[in-house]
Amino acid sequence: MSTLSRVSRSAVCPAARSLPNLRHVSGLGELDLALFRWVNQTCAHPALDAVMYLLSGEYWMWLLVAVAGVWGAMKGGRRLRCFLLAMAVIFLVGEGLITGPLKKLTRRPRPFVTQLETRLPPGIGKGASFSLPSGHAAAMAAVAMTAGLFFPRSRRILFPVAAGVGVSRIYNGVHYPSDVLAGWAVGAGYALGISHGMRWIWRAVGRRWFPHWWVRLPDLLKPESPLAAEQIRALNVDLSPALQPVQWLRLGYVLIGLLMVGRWGYQAAHVIDLSEDEAYQWLWSKRLDWSYYSKPPGIALAQRFGTMIAGDTELGVRFLSPLISAVVSWMTLRFVSRFVAAPTAFWSLVAFLAVPLFALGGILLTVDPLTVFFWTLAMFAGWRAVLEDSTRQWLLVGVGVAGTFLCKYFSPFLIAAFALVFLTWPRARRQLRRPGPWLALGANVLALLPFLWWNKQHNWVGLTHLSERGALKESWRFTLRFFNDFMVVEPVLFNPFFFVAVIVAVVLFCRRPGRFETVTERDPDGTVLRYLLTMGAPIFLFYLAWTFRGRVQPNWIAPAVLPLLLFALILGSRVPRDSGAGRWLGYLFRTGLAVFTPVLILAHETNWVSKIAGRPLPAHIDPLRRTRGFRETAALVQAQFDQVARPGQPTYILCHHYGYAGELSFYVPAARARVGSADPLVYVRRFDIPNNQLWFWPEYEYRTKKGADFLLVFQSDEPVVMPVDELKSQFNQLEDLGEFPVLYRGREFHRLRLFVGRGLR
Fold first, then answer.
1. For the chain, give me the number of helices (H) and strands (E)?
2. Which of 51, 90, 304, 647 gives 20 to 30 Å between its CA and that of 174?
């Protein structure tokens, strides 16, 4: 079998990697095998094929969940809503932290992998995961057990259905009987444990943190049994009116904390690989410097900090992103609660979390989450600095201004935004007579020094790169092509419904600003809406205008999204609900939450699409394509490298693109061990002028390794024309190994073109 075949097979079915080790099969009891063969083969009948296919299919399960969810949210009573909440937690914990890890721990191959006589009825696919325990059996047992706790009569229907689902998995040849028994036990066990655990937590925490809600719902499993007045007095529950709004803020804090921990768990679970930028910048973190070719040093420092805590893992590289998102969420909740009612402040937080750009920034660690954090810090601190006449808050503004430059050269936008604030807000303009604003500006000057020092040593290459990115060297030509792209992509990253709501809010404000500028104790000048608009609109309008000249990357407007969203939310709270504008804004925000919250949850694990739709999402439209398939890419490259390497002959890997150099350096074990050494294993093609950071590091000058062999790695579509003649001139012998598809769960996520260069000249 060729190396490519081995790699492709393992990518499609991980269980196949256990084929050489048959201890799982030999460990099966004879009764287990005999029962499996009897159900799978002896009981086979065309009529049963259809029934078992239906029971094994997940379409009806997910349809049932969707219908129950919509009904529960709109018409369902308290009992149904508590049941749906419990099921959501049970599915997230059970599937993500129990069933999946158990499969990887036991590593039992599925029957069709080791039992060649296994019968697969028509339409039954070969699962890519391991066999023990059965996930279908566990999930259905969890549903039946949880529903039985809330609706005891449902046991008569759901318990037999759960039994049928388990038997169908044996009949269809994808699980052994012991897998199903284990699945039933595991699913029922974690359903009971999590349900009663939630009940205990609510009893312990609800009374103290959420007393007004707790007296109406003292028992999650008996939601229609509120406390009587005598019981409330006997328990001495504090029901003072002042605690009503505090409960909503506490609920927001709980949501923020759960999301932060959940995101760390998601990162640690290896659901997605590092993106090319993350892997490339991970190399930077191993060699800290004053600045880098394309970015300031902030991202390298952030990754260095994370890997010091969690090691050179996906969790380590991305460790700060959930923490940053949590801090930004906390600042947002605190700020908005100053101007709107507590329930509205909580839903504003939920709206923030339903913005795709921010959901992405809560997982991946690129320059954008860092820039948004420092921009938000400066924005909120600037508001308090003006109102409180506080030098301390101006110092925080300085931290934000310096941070935006050290992460993304974005401080000029922030300085320009504050200049507009001083121009339009008399109270802020008086601050110019105090040292605070000038100290903040001085912090930005200090942040410039590392950038200037590094660029002076490297012939100002960073400025050259920035001018090239902005197309400043090209003559201006009017075009709508980039504008059209901008207006299609940006609303999606913003959340299309929220994007329209912002436009509606801006139109309303511009028509009658005085109608919405409400003077309060915390906003004595009634300028919060004007302030937020000033902090967000200039960035968006600048890049919108720039699209008539050149391409604008979708993430460039990231710092503008939060102030514009808060502007629309606060203005919406001041529009009468029964007015036309009030109804429209309410509809847009509610629809944005209802539509994009499940979409964002699904986008974290697009493999669930195959469970819902019956077929996987095509690779070319999978939103996780840029973060998947790189482990498989590294395995494929490693296998080819092992084949072409000759004993005693120095052999290296040479990539065309720096992103792939980062990915292979991270995911090829031998390459990772040599990162930071004087003799790395993975290099990137070198050109006469700098085009990436590795160009400046002497140890990545591979052209000094005369006579060495190289495995050359190209993405098939980059470049379109392979530089074959150029490569032939650099080696004594060049062999084209051909194109290799990189498969992730049977789908082609990437495609490589590999060459072997013998004897570098």
1. 37, 5
2. 90
Q: Look up the CATH number of the domain holding residue 106.
A: 1.10.606.20
In a domain, 262, yes or no: no
Q: Which long-range contacts (CB under 8 A, 24 or more apart) does 144-153 make?
A: 144/188, 145/187, 145/188, 145/191, 145/192, 145/195, 146/83, 146/86, 146/87, 146/90, 146/191, 146/195, 147/83, 149/192, 149/195, 149/221, 150/79, 150/80, 150/82, 150/83, 150/86, 150/221, 151/79, 151/83
- Dig out the tokens for 610 from the structure: 């195959």
722 and 642: one domain?
A: yes
pLDDT at residue 70 in the model? 62
Other Cβ atoms closer than 10 A to 143: 23
d(CA 380, CA 393) in angstroms, rounded, equals 9
Amino acid at 243: L
Contact 486, 555 (CB under 8 A): no
Distance separating alpha carbons of residues 3 and 643, to the nearest angstrom: 8
Domain ranges, residue 656: 629-760
Q: Is 311 part of any domain?
A: no
| 543 and 640 fall within a common domain | no
- Measure the CA–CA gap between 703 and 707, rounded to whole angstroms: 10
| Residues comprising the chain, all counted | 761
- CA–CA dist 117, 100 (Å, integer): 27
Below-70 pLDDT ranges, the chain? 1-28, 57-76, 123, 125-128, 468-477, 611-614, 717-721
In the chain, the number of structural domains is 3
Residues 745 and 643 in one domain: yes
> What are the Cα distances from residue 403, in Å, to 271, 379, 400, 508, 543?
30, 13, 5, 34, 21
- Cβ-contact 555, 540 below 8 angstroms: no
Residue 11: its pLDDT value, please?
36
Q: Which stretch of DSSP H or E encloses residue 552? A: none
Helix (H, G, I), strand (E, B), or coil: what is residue 403? helix
Say if CB 329 and CB 373 are below 8 A apart.
no
Domain finish residue from 172, 192, 209: 209
Q: Identify whether the C-beta of residue 693 lies closer than 8 Å to the C-beta of residue 658.
A: yes
Rg of the Cα atoms in the chain: 29
What pLDDT score was predicted for residue 58? 59
Same domain, 201 and 338: no
At residue 636, the pLDDT reads: 94
- Burial class of residue 707 (count of CB atoms within 10 Å of its CB; 0-12, 13-18, 19+): exposed
Would 499 be classed as within a structural domain?
yes
Query: Where do we find the tokens 């500006």?
Result: 441
Regarding whether 702 and 555 lie in a shared domain, the answer is no
Edge-to-edge strand ranges of the sheet holding 747-760: 682-684, 651-655, 709-715, 747-760, 731-744
Pick from 671, 651, 649: nearest CA to 661 = 671
> Are 352 and 565 in contact, with CB atoms under 8 Å apart?
yes
In tens, the pLDDT along 405-452 reads: 999 888 899 999 999 999 999 999 999 999 999 999 999 999 999 999
Residue 412 lies in a domain: yes
- Is the CB of residue 175 less than 8 Å from the CB of residue 169? yes
Pair (517, 431) in one structural domain: yes
pTM for this one?
Answer: 0.86
Beta-bridge partners for 652: 710
Residue 230, Cβ neighbours under 10 Å: how many? 8
Cα separation, 92 vs 243, whole angstroms: 31
Residue with the two structure tokens 């009663």? 196
pLDDT of residue 720: 60
585 shares a domain with 679: no
Listed residues 174, 209, 244: the one ending a domain:
209
> How far is CA 526 from its chain centroid?
37
Q: Distance between CA 748 and CA 668 in Å, rounded?
A: 20
| 283, 665 contact by CB (below 8 A) | yes
413 plus 467 within the same structural domain? yes
